[in-house]
């Protein structure tokens, strides 16, 4: 009986997080055994609800787009750009290194409060961003937005950001396992290594979108997460192994991925910001240990909405 009520509770919470329309779409796709197709239906469902908003986002992107930034491959769903292509990245890394060292004494208590994912948690606060505006300004910079708008074809929404710590661990669960990010059609995340990250430091690891799609077909799991064999993993996986400042833009809704398998003796620290088609693709409560979800921070939206483009990105 307890298991039954727990299942009902999970269903109600899921319905609340994506809304009734989104949840019905998800149930439909589960019923037909195509769960990952739900994000495609959800995309068109949201456009039909407010076509004017989407048209406006297309027009604004055309007004501001200048093709002078690294291009995210629409076939492979990622780009490993030269860090020098994005002015200000070295300053971002230095700020993140300083913030991490300042918070080092309280890391254990922060980790305990992050009961959702003890292997991956955020230590950045709203006040940190206000005192170090360079972090948000980089995530909203012309070069970053041009890379994103050329990929999306319209103005995407800044969903969240954070300074994430992955301590040494032996687990392989949840987001440490191969998965896609769901609900929204395109989740593009930028990962910036704050310190050196080697193969044993739990680097962000992924398979390009075109190869991920091939694996779905080969394993007869179309629209579902395919079974990843050790042979596939060794052959196809790409890892963000780099010195401080190494970065990647990856569409995590199309690229199979995992992270935070930190088997060495030092934590991995990354500055990450997350763009999506809709910032409110899920109705999550504010939880700074998970990330800084922009819709919960009106003060940040007000401070950084400096023109019509940034205003739309943060809306």
Radius of gyration of CA atoms, rounded to a whole number: 19 Å
Distance between the termini: 43 Å
CATH class identity: Mainly Beta
Quaternary structure of the protein: single chain
When the domains are counted, the total is: 1
- The gross shape turns out to be globular
Percent of sequence in beta strands: 5-15%
Unreliable spans are 4-9
For this structure, the CATH topology is: Jelly Rolls
Which architecture would the CATH scheme give at its second level?
Sandwich
- Give average pLDDT, whole number: 87
Number of strands: 10
**Sheet having the most strands:** 7 strands, antiparallel
SS summary, helix count: 12
* Structural class computed from helices and strand pairing: alpha+beta
**Helix-strand string:** HHHEHHEHHHEEEHHEEEEEHH
Report the helical percentage: 40-55%
What is this structure's SSE topology?
Elements: H1 2-31, H2 38-49, H3 51-64, E1 78-79, H4 89-103, H5 107-113, E2 121-122, H6 126-131, H7 134-139, H8 142-152, E3 157-166, E4 188-193, E5 205-206, H9 209-218, H10 230-236, E6 238-239, E7 247-251, E8 257-258, E9 268-276, E10 292-293, H11 298-304, H12 308-314
Antiparallel strand pairs: 1-7, 2-3, 3-9, 3-10, 4-7, 4-9, 5-6, 5-8
Helix pairs in contact: 1-2, 2-3
Throw out a few tags for this protein:
Jelly Rolls; seven-stranded antiparallel beta sheet; 12 helices; globular; 315 residues; three-stranded antiparallel beta sheet; alpha+beta; 13% strand
Please characterize this protein's 3D structure.
The chain has helices at 2-31, 38-49, 51-64, 89-103, 107-113, 126-131, 134-139, 142-152, 209-218, 230-236, 298-304, 308-314; strands at residues 78-79, 121-122, 157-166, 188-193, 205-206, 238-239, 247-251, 257-258, 268-276, 292-293. The chain is built from twelve helices and ten strands. The strands form two sheets. Strands 1, 2, 3, 4, 7, 9 and 10 form a seven-stranded antiparallel β-sheet that branches. A three-stranded antiparallel β-sheet has the order 6-5-8, with no helix packed on it. It has a single domain (2-314), classed as Sandwich (Jelly Rolls). It is α+β, with helices and mostly antiparallel strands and 315 residues long. 42% of the residues lie in helices and 13% in strands. Helix 1 crosses helix 2 and helix 2 (38-49) crosses helix 3.
């Amino acid at each position: 009986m307890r298991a039954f009520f727990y299942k009902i509770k999970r269903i109600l919470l899921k319905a609340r997080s994506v809304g009734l329309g989104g949840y019905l779409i998800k149930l439909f796709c589960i019923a037909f055994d195509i769960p990952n197709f739900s994000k495609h239906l959800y995309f068109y469902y949201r456009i039909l609800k407010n076509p004017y908003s989407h048209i406006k986002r297309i027009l604004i992107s055309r007004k501001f787009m200048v093709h002078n930034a690294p291009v995210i491959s629409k076939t492979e769903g990622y780009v490993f750009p030269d860090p020098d292509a994005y002015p200000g990245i070295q300053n971002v890394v230095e700020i993140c290194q300083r913030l991490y060292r300042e918070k080092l004494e309280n890391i254990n208590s922060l980790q305990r409060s992050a009961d959702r994912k003890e292997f991956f948690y955020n230590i950045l606060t709203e006040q940190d961003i206000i005192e170090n505006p360079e972090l948000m300004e980089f995530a909203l910079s012309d070069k970053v937005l041009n890379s994103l708008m050329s990929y999306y074809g319209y103005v995407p929404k800044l969903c969240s950001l954070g300074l994430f710590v992955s301590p040494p661990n032996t687990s392989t669960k949840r987001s440490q396992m191969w998965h896609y990010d769901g609900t929204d059609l395109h989740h593009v995340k930028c990962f910036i290594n704050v310190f050196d990250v080697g193969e044993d430091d739990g680097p962000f690891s992924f398979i390009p979108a075109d190869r991920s799609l091939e694996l779905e077909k080969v394993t007869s799991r179309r629209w579902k997460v395919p079974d990843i064999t050790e042979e596939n993993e060794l052959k196809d996986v790409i890892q963000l192994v780099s010195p401080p400042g190494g970065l990647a833009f990856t569409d995590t809704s199309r690229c199979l991925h995992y992270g935070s398998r930190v088997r060495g003796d030092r934590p991995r620290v990354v500055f990450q910001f997350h763009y999506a088609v809709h910032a409110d693709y899920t109705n999550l409560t504010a939880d700074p240990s998970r990330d800084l979800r922009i819709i919960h921070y009106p003060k940040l939206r007000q401070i950084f909405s400096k023109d019509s483009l940034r205003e739309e990105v943060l809306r």
